[in-house]
Amino acid sequence: MKADTKKAGKPKGNFLSRLKANKELLILSMPGAIWFLFFAYLPLFGILVAFKKFRLSGDGFFYNLFTSETVWFDNFKFLFSSGDAWIIVRNTVLYNLTFIILGVAVPVVLALLLNEIKNKGMMKIYQSSMFLPYFLSWVVVSYCVFAFLNPEKGYFNAIIQQFGGDPVSWYTETKFWPFIIIFMSQWKGMGYNTVVYLASICGIDKTYYEAAVLDGASKWQQIKYITLPLLKPVITILLIMSVGGIFKADFGLFYQLPKNSGPLYPVTNVLDTYIFRALKTSGEIGMSSAAALFQSTVGFVLIMIANKIVSKVDNENALF
Amino acid sequence: MAAQNIQKTEAYSRRKMQKRIKKLEDEACKYNQIKTPTNIAFNIILTILSLICVIPFIFVIIISFTDESSLAMNGYRFIPEKLSFYAYEYIISAGENILKSYGVTILITVVGTIIGLLLTGTYAYALSRKTYAYRKFFTTVITIPMLFGGGMIANYLIVTKVLMLKDSLWALILPLCLNSFNIIVLRTFFKTSIPDAVVESAKIDGASEWRLFFQIVIPMALPGLATIGLFLTLGYWNDWFNAMMYMDNKDLIPLQYLLIQIESSIDWLANNKATMGVDGIMAAANMPKETIKMAIVV
User: Fold this and answer.
1) What are the chain B neighbours of A21 within 8 Å (beta carbons)?
2) Between chains, do A32 and B119 touch, taking CB under 8 Å as contact?
3) Residue B298: what pLDDT?
4) What's the average model confidence in pLDDT over A3-31?
5) In this structure, what DSSP letter does residue A278 have?
6) What is the mean pLDDT of residues B76-100?
7) What's the predicted TM-score (pTM) here?
8) Does A40 lie at the interface with B, CB-CB under 8 angstroms?
9) So what's the pLDDT on residue B115?
């Protein structure tokens, strides 16, 4: 991004003439900027709520914000003294670590497979059918899963009973859900990510491979010494971004898929669902915004650290 | 006449040449292909994965066509004993809510996509222009929210208490219409697909930035805009989160949120005898639109 900005027009003359020269473009970018002001920058004020004993009354948000009592870190103390916090943070981080690792490994492998397949017609079919889940919302997906896991009529229980086993009450047993959640998240995201990686594989100059074949490189060697190194920039960027999101969870995955089932909270409660439930059911605004602030701050710090590490190891691939 | 003929033959021979080059390339490719057994193995792996992706979907559609009584007896099966269109008839006859929700969803999808495309397009276009003096500033404006956000609660408070959008359709449209990622994608697309020379010559001819954007940039960047439009459409069509947060008005509920409501209102774990057929259907009812989108992508 630094390279772009260096090329930007050098200021000519004073402020007013500059403004005049850029008037039209400025007007074009105004609507977007106003949107960002309202929907991205105003909420930053909402962060202050985390340090307040916030009560809503009829007098408008900012009035409430400045008149309510400042309690500094009491909300955070309260959050971390409750036993839930540890479980929630553990869930969020462990799930996300798994997602990050699988989210790189599975699509890259699939993209390589798709790229090597001889019949290109089939490639299109595979690609489209793997892309299908990406188009469904978690609500629809949860119905699909419910059809298999329904304790009374679901397909899985029917199979288990046919082989003489006891039916499983899927929506109350905690031990299956980590696998179900990880599987479904890969199921939904794999097609999209595969296409992203496939696009960058297709973008690799064919002459590299020709030269490699002339030198007698095997397919495996081509992948190891040409494809993967050239995919590295894409992988790094996506990795940095996903490391920053390690404290954010896909709300639909953890809320819709287990059907908000109470007995499953120990394995499905993550920061996002926790904040949402706190807001919608118990109305604990202060505490849940403390959790939200904790989430964004740690995410920000992590993205910075990841970027720093990447730029130390390999300067070209750093994000900024 | 003669000149035309020469042109024709030239074009013909050029095409022939290209064909030969392609054939040679194909032959060269053959030396670099995987062996047949590996090819078969790869194909099998991919087939299984594709089936895993598609089957749950087909299953729900089958359930929606299964007769209610045989559902109660046998549970869900891939091969239903008795087919019935009852669930669909029910939706068409009694499903006033559902039709209303379809209306809401279609409305927010269309309006949202148009607004989103305009906002993203104009902003990205301004950023893509090298002569724009405030480019650095406006790039920073979109990068900061990518790294740090106020979070769910803050957004909720701003939308409901400051912008007063609770229970209005704008609450479903506005929060989704713009995001930094789309802008960056489109900016990169504008930069690569619209040569500076085109912009410069239009400027010399006296076109204003508005005219440049609407008459030159938009037609030239249609593929890029279509991609962003698809992202937006998908986002709106599948959105239920904003409805869950901001919508208490029963008349303005989008389809996806209606699905959630139906499910929670019937206390699904205790009794789901008569309802799953209808539920399954509604999930399936989403499908035609989705497959159309699919077709657009492929």
Assistant:
1) 133
2) yes
3) 41
4) 67
5) I
6) 64
7) 0.74
8) yes
9) 92
With a CB cutoff of 8 Å and minimum separation 6, the contacts of A23 are none
Interface with A, mutate which of B48, B53, B264 (most A CBs under 10 A): B53
Domains of chain A: 2-67 (no CATH), 83-317 (1.10.3720.10)
Query: Angle CA(A231)–CA(A236)–CA(A239) in degrees, nearest 5?
Result: 125
Q: Indicate yes or no: CB of B283 within 8 angstroms of CB of A143.
A: yes
Give yes or no for residue B286 having a pLDDT over 60.
no
The alpha carbon dihedral of A148, A153, A159, A160 has a sign of: positive
CB contact A202 to B (< 8 Å): no
Nearest to B75 among A18, A46, A158 (CB): A158
* Three-state SS at A50: helix
Q: Are A273 and A249 in contact (CB under 8 A)?
A: yes
Chain A contacts of B162, Cβ < 8 Å?
A: 42, 60-62
Nearest CA to CA, how far is B213 from chain A (Å)? 9
> What are the angstrom distances between the C-alpha of A267 and each of A82, A84, A250, A320, B254?
17, 11, 14, 36, 30
**Taking residues A199-228, what's their average pLDDT?**
85
Task: Enumerate the residues of chain B whose CB falls inside 8 A of the CB of residue A191.
Answer: 53
Instruction: Give how far B210 is from chain A: nearest CA, Å.
Output: 7
The residue of chain A nearest to residue B35, with distances taken between CA atoms, is: A118
How far, CA to CA in Å, does A250 sit from each of A84, A86, A136, A184, B274?
19, 19, 14, 12, 31
A205 touches chain B (CB under 8 A): no
Write down the residue that tokens 């090597």 correspond to: A116
Q: What is the mean pLDDT of residues B194-212?
A: 85
Euclidean distance between the first and final Cα of chain A, in Å?
6
Q: CB distance B162–A62 less than 8 Å?
A: yes
Q: Is A191 exposed, middle or buried (0-12, 13-18, 19+ CB in 10 A)?
A: buried
Q: Answer yes or no: is the ipTM higher than 0.95.
A: no
Report pLDDT digits (tens) over A182-212: 888 888 888 888 888 888 888 888 888 888 8
Instruction: Write the pLDDT tens digit of every residue in B168-188.
Output: 888 888 888 888 888 888 888
Q: B22: buried, middle or exposed (CB in 10 Å: 19+, 13-18, 0-12)?
A: exposed
Pairwise CA distance, residues B215 & B223, whole Å: 15
Query: Are A256 and B294 in contact (CB < 8 Å)?
Result: no
**Cβ within 8 Å, pair B209-A36:** no
Residue A140: closest CA among B63, B64, B293, B283: B283
Q: Are B291 and A131 in contact (CB under 8 A)?
A: no
Q: Locate tokens 């329904």: which residue?
A: A150
Q: How far apart are CA B254 and CA B238, in angstroms?
A: 9
What's the CA gap between B153 and A35, in Å, rounded?
18
| Number of A–B residue contacts, CB under 8 Å | 292
Domain residue limits, chain B:
7-84, 95-297
- Residues of B in Cβ contact (< 8 Å) with A1: 139, 143
* CATH code given to domain B95-297: 1.10.3720.10
What is the C-alpha separation between A313 and A54, in angstroms, rounded? 45
- Rounded to whole angstroms, the maximal C-alpha distance in chain B is 85
Q: Which two tokens stand for residue A290?
A: 């403390």
The pair phi, psi for residue B117, each rounded to 5°, is -65, -40
